[in-house]
Amino acid sequence: MAGRSSHYFSRQPEVASKRRSIELSLPDCELRLTTDSGVFSAERVDAGTRLLLQEAPSPTAAMGDICDVGCGYGPIALTLATRSPHSRVWAIDVNERAVALCAENADTNGNDNIRPVVIDTDGTALVGDPAHVSALAEVRFDGIWSNPPIRIGKPALHALLTTWLDRLTPEGRAWLVVQRHLGADSLAEWMQSQGWATTRLVSRAGYRLLEVSAR
């Protein structure tokens, strides 16, 4: 995933910039988001992300540090930050363009509780506010919300999930949305086999919403 490429899971997408503005309308919040070429679902907020935001539990007032793994331009992170303004929302991605957009969108929408950080494929923090980069290695999360990058391949996906699911607090939970035809059921079975209790909460429009407990 290092180097330059047109893939949204590349560090520096090679495709030329083509910025645009889209809207995310949910029952409890309205967000205006700037997107760009070379990031996931640049044309519109994708159906899986919408399912996650509509059906997964919202962060509770007791949650301190929560995380959007694979934040892209920020629809999940900004929604979490809006719903739980007292939580610290860590927005992490390997894509520098995506993380910069997430930071820009946080400023635009007044979400000052977002911590956008570019990470390496092993979870190491690389780029962001120096205080956030330094702190990320020690943070444990009360909740993780993610539309994970399934197309990076099974070994890389398993490594990614292992890195971040193992950062959950003992009572922490993760909510993942995965397309059924891209292996949602086999992924749930793998997580279960690795010790993360996994429950299917919703199955709709070809997606599974999975709830995962800390192991």
UniProtKB/TrEMBL annotation:
GO BP terms: methylation
Keyword Methyltransferase included in the entry's annotation: yes
Molecular function (Gene Ontology), one example: S-adenosylmethionine-dependent methyltransferase activity
Keyword Zinc-finger included in the entry's annotation: no
Gene3D superfamilies cross-referenced by the UniProt entry: Vaccinia Virus protein VP39
Keyword tags: Methyltransferase, Transferase
Pfam families: MTS
Domain Methyltransferase small: 31-208
PANTHER family, A to Z: RIBOSOMAL RNA SMALL SUBUNIT METHYLTRANSFERASE C
Protein name per the record: Unannotated protein
